[in-house]
Amino acid sequence: MSEQIITAVTKQLHAVIDPYTGTKITAGKGLKSVTVDDEKVVVNLIKGYPVEGVVKELAGLVRDSLSSLPFENRDLEVVIEQSIVSHSVQQGVQAVAGIKNIIAVASGKGGVGKSTVSANLALALSACGANVAVLDADIYGPSQPRMLGITGKPKALENKMLLPMKNHDIKIMSIGFLVEEDTPMIWRGPMVTQALEQMLRGTDWANDGEEIDYLVIDLPPGTGDIQLTLSQKVPVTGAVIVTTPQDIALLDARKAYKMFEKVDVPIFGVIENMSTHVCSQCGHEEAIFGENGAAKMAADYKLDVLGDIPLEMAIRELADSGSPTVVAQPESATAKRYTDIALRIAGKLSVKKKDFASKFPNIVVENS
Q: What is the pLDDT of residues 8-58, one digit of tens each?
C-alpha cells in the first residue's frame, strides 16, 4: 500500500505548476522525497528560490492536488525547503567571490523609478529568506545609501578589500559612501568603469562567512560604458527592465532590452512602474502615464510582465526616509506586489542552467 501511495502522490504532483517558476513544482529535482508510515504521508519539496514567505501558499497547492487521494486515515505533512545555488552566466566572465547570482536592474531611461524598484526587490528577496546585497552602479547619481538609510564610510581590511555597509539585513556598496552626497562625479568613461569593477570585486561580500544568494545591481540609465562593462566583465545571471507605461520611456526600455540581447544576458521580464496613480485621499486609480505599455513591449519581444507598481506618494516618502515600502509597510498591498515580482524573478532564475564551473578542480600539467 505504501508504494501505491508514493506512486499516486508523485504522479499527482507532476501536474502541479509552481506559480513562481511557471514549471512543474517537481521540476529540477524539486520533489526531494515522499515517505509513508502508518500515521502520515510526508511530501518534501526543495525549491531553488527563497520560500520563507510562500510556504503556506505552496503547501496549499500540494494539499489541494492530493486531496482526492485515499491516504487510509493518514495525515498529510508538506515540508518545503530552499536551496539557492549559482546559475550560468556569460561565457568567459570571471565569477565574483562570495556571490552566487547577479541580477541587473536596468531602465534605459532615467526617472522611471528604477532605483526604488531595485531597493524594494532586494528587501523583498531578503524578507523571503535569501542572503541579499545591492551594488549601486549609478556612479554619477548614487541613491541607494539614502534609500536604504545608510550613512558613513565602509571599512578597509588589511588586504585592501572593503567591507560592505549593511542595513535592513542586506549589504550594500555604493560610490555614495566614498564621496560627499553633494559632490559631483566629474569622471570620464574609463574611470567610471574602473570604479564599478573596484566596488564589485574589491568588496568582501561574504565577510561574515555566508555567500550572497542574490546581488542586485542598480544600473544607471542608458546603454553606455557601465552597461557595456557589466555585460563584458561582470557575471550577470539575468536582467530586469523597469519602465513606465509612457511611450517615451518604452522607447528607451526597448533599447535596454536590445543591448542585453546582443551580449547574451537573459531578460527575466519587464516591470511596469507608476502603472497607475493612486489618490491618497480617495484611493481612486488613474493611468496618467498611459496603459499596458509594458504588456505591449513584452508581447513584441516575447517577454513576461513580472508585475506592475502604482504611483503612490508613500513609496516616494518611505524611500526618501531610508525605509522603503517592503520594510516600512510589509503588509501593504504595494509591498506584496514587490514581493510577488521578486519571487517571480528568483523563480525564473532558479530554473536556469546551473553553474558547475566552480566545482571543477584546477588541473595542472607539469613536465616530470
A: 999 999 999 999 999 999 998 899 999 999 899 999 999 999 999 899 999
Please tell me the distance from the alpha carbon of residue 358 to that of residue 95, in angstroms, as a whole number. 8
Residue 366 pLDDT: 55
User: Residue 70: pLDDT above 50?
Assistant: yes
- The three-state secondary structure class of 68 is coil
Neighbours of 191 (CB within 10 A): 13
Which cell numbers in the block locate residue 156? 578597509
- List, in order of start, the domains of the chain with CATH numbers: 2-82 (3.30.300.130), 99-350 (3.40.50.300)
Residue 148, φ and ψ in degrees, nearest 5: -95, 5
Asked if 44 contacts 344 with a C-beta cutoff of 8 angstroms, the reply is: no
Q: Is the distance from CB of 130 to CB of 349 less than 8 angstroms?
A: no
Give Dmax over CA atoms of the chain in angstroms.
82
Cβ count within 10 A of residue 37: 9
What residue type is 101 in one-letter code? N
Q: Return the higher-pLDDT residue of 257 and 225.
A: 257
Nearest to 147 by CA among 98, 113, 112: 113
Cell triple for residue 59? 503547501
Report pLDDT for 357: 55
- pLDDT > 50? residue 360: no
Question: Which amino acid would we find at residue 281?
Answer: Q
Q: What is the DSSP string of 227-288?
A: HHHHHHHS---EEEEEE-SSHHHHHHHHHHHHHHHHTT--EEEEEEEEEEEE-TTT--EE-T
**Vertex 120: Cα angle to 115 and 121 (nearest 5):** 95
- φ/ψ of 341, rounded to 5, equals -65, -45
Residues with Cβ within 8 Å of 15's Cβ and at least 6 positions away in sequence, in order, are: 24, 65
Which pTM does this prediction carry? Answer: 0.91
Name the most confidently modeled range: 138-147, 328-337, 359-368.
Answer: 328-337
pLDDT in tens, 255-299: 888 888 888 889 999 999 998 887 777 878 788 887 888 888 999
Do the beta carbons of residue 249 and residue 293 sit within 8 Å? yes
What whole-number distance in Å separates Cα of residue 9 and Cα of residue 132?
35
Amino acid at 341: I
